[in-house]
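Hi R.,

Here's the chain you asked about this morning:
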Amino acid sequence: MRGMFAEYLYEFDFNASGTAKLKHKPAGIYLDQTNEQLAKLDPEVRRAVVLNDVGQCVATANPSGVAELLSADVATSDEAAAFQALVSAIAGCVPRGLDLRMHKMFLRGFLAEGAYRAAVARNGGLK
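And the predicted structure, written out as tokens:
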């Protein structure tokens, strides 16, 4: 559900193009975690935080590509083409040893949350 909510907020709070200009005050986001903080998290929560970091990295590397993915309807050829266009950015953002095998819907959710976090950062962070 987080991914769908992130997609909605990305579209609502930002001009959801590659530029992601702020339209509304953004929702609160958690701060980046140190390695010590990550180590204290439950393994599933830690994995989600790391995958959100991957999503934010991809959204920073290819903001228009992620915006195109999020504007595509689910399970369409447009979505498949958008995912394909992001393969190199995703590969460049996945930490060594991280198993990224998951359903595209979950990956889309992590990319949506990462795009939201990247857009907040590009617009000066939370104030």
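Helices lie at 2-13, 35-40, 43-61, 63-71, 77-85, 87-93, 104-122.

Let me know if you need anything else.
M.
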